[in-house]
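[Backbone geometry]
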Amino acid sequence: MAISSISTNCPSLLRFSNNSKQSFSLSQTSVSFQSSRSNLSRGKPLTIRATAVPAAPTAEGLAPAITLTDNASKHLNKMRAERDKDLCLRIGVKQGGCSGMSYTMDFETRANARSDDSIIEYKGFTIVCDPKSLLFLFGMQLDYSDALIGGGFSFKNPNATQTCGCGKSFAAEM
């Protein structure tokens, strides 16, 4: 079977042929098969398998693993400015708390980030997370409220199957 590339209006079109009257064309949007009647009447089964694999999205198209609300971003920038250093926020998870796991947050210099850490740039703010914690935090949104009751940072975690009343610990199934 020979493979040849065809340049058309279709970005990637391949034609497979076995030097007979049969040909098989594959494009990103359609699959077609052409054969003469004489080849089909020979009694041989005809099998076609096609798999569509989407291209990997560009970095611009991906949502960040952890996001900040505008309130959280403003408060974190204010806290970072008070320390007068270029710091990033390390977010993680540790065993403990009412529901089994609790959130951890602390400022650190970017130089302290380990090679296996995920570094997330979000609206000019850098968030660092270790790979084990990221399994539990992927898709989380960090919010901040200055309300007198229930104020402070809150975690909106889609992976949490259960949370405690204070919202600082959670349980998740993996």
Q: What stands out?
A: Residues 70-83 form the longest helix (14 residues).
